[in-house]
């Protein structure tokens, strides 16, 4: 049995036999799977009066700790959309009574977006149906295939710089809960190819974030998650990284150009996460 991508590959093989179109076998299928799965998920959201964008906001707030609260800038980075798009989403959700926007008690310039009781109840109703849809569209892979695909996709994302520091991942506690909640200040910075996602463990590392070290946000010196320059990055490496960053070079590419000089990692390139923390220091 063949799929549509097999047809595309055969056609290119006949028309341009001089080219290796192997990457299309992966990228083409990723694109088609994304579209087909997106259609299935969209039907599930619509059954609850939502679309994918609205669910994205509600779900992001739901998994962001017991307060279910983030700033618009944090939501914007998590959802990978523009400030105008996130404002429109929040306007619609607030009009439905699903979220509220309130000024920060410590800094009036900062606005917090929170789930209302109705919003929390809605996302908790949608989530089981959402997971059931995901399980249904992935059923053809089986348990082993699902695990293998998840691992391969993780490897691909890591190779593109889409990484997050281990310290930001909540760990299971002996009582079955989590030792810490999801960090509310994870920042994502997407730019031109190669695609990358850069995370900072404190506020104030992104010009769109209205929090800052002087305005109530945690600073690198305060010892917050991800704060401070990693030891593997010396002053010379940091200076070079800043030069390349000023030229618009993506952080993932900068990391690949640098070499750790000393220690057990000598001769290796620093991780994107560690370089981002150094640049944010």
From TrEMBL:
UniProt feature, compositional bias: Gly residues: 214-229
SMART domains xref list: HTH_MARR
Molecular-function annotations in GO: DNA-binding transcription factor activity
Region annotated Disordered, chain positions: 189-231
GO process terms (BP): response to stress
Listed Gene3D superfamilies: Winged helix-like DNA-binding domain superfamily/Winged helix DNA-binding domain
Compositional bias segments (type: Low complexity): 203-213
UniProt domain HTH marR-type: residue ranges: 23-158
Cross-referenced PROSITE patterns: HTH_MARR_2
Name of the featured protein: MarR family transcriptional regulator
Organism in which the protein naturally occurs: Streptomyces genisteinicus
């Amino acid at each position: 049995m063949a799929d549509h991508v097999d047809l595309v590959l055969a056609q290119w093989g006949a028309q341009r036999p001089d080219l290796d179109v192997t990457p299309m076998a992966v990228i083409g299928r990723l694109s088609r799977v994304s579209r087909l799965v997106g259609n299935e998920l969209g039907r599930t959201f619509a059954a609850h009066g939502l679309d994918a964008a609205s669910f994205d906001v509600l779900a992001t707030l739901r998994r962001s700790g017991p307060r279910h609260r983030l700033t618009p800038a944090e939501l914007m980075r998590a959802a990978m959309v523009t400030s105008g798009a996130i404002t429109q989403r929040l306007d619609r959700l607030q009009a439905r009574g699903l979220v509220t926007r309130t000024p920060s008690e410590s800094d009036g310039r900062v606005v917090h977006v929170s789930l209302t009781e109705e919003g929390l109840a809605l996302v908790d109703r949608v989530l089981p149906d959402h997971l059931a849809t995901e399980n249904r569209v992935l059923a053809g892979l089986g348990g082993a295939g699902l695990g293998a695909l998840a691992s391969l996709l993780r490897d691909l994302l890591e190779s593109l710089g889409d990484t997050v520091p281990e310290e930001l991942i909540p760990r299971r506690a002996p009582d079955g809960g989590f030792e810490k909640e999801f960090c509310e200040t994870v920042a994502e910075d997407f730019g031109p190819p190669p695609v990358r996602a850069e995370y900072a463990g404190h506020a104030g590392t992104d010009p769109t974030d209205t929090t800052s070290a002087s305005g109530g946000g945690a600073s690198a010196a305060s010892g917050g998650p991800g704060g401070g320059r990693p030891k593997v990055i010396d002053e010379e490496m940091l200076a070079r990284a800043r030069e390349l960053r000023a030229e618009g070079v993506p952080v993932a590419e900068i990391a690949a150009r640098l070499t750790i000089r000393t220690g057990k990692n000598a001769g290796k390139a620093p991780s994107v996460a560690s370089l981002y923390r150094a640049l944010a220091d």
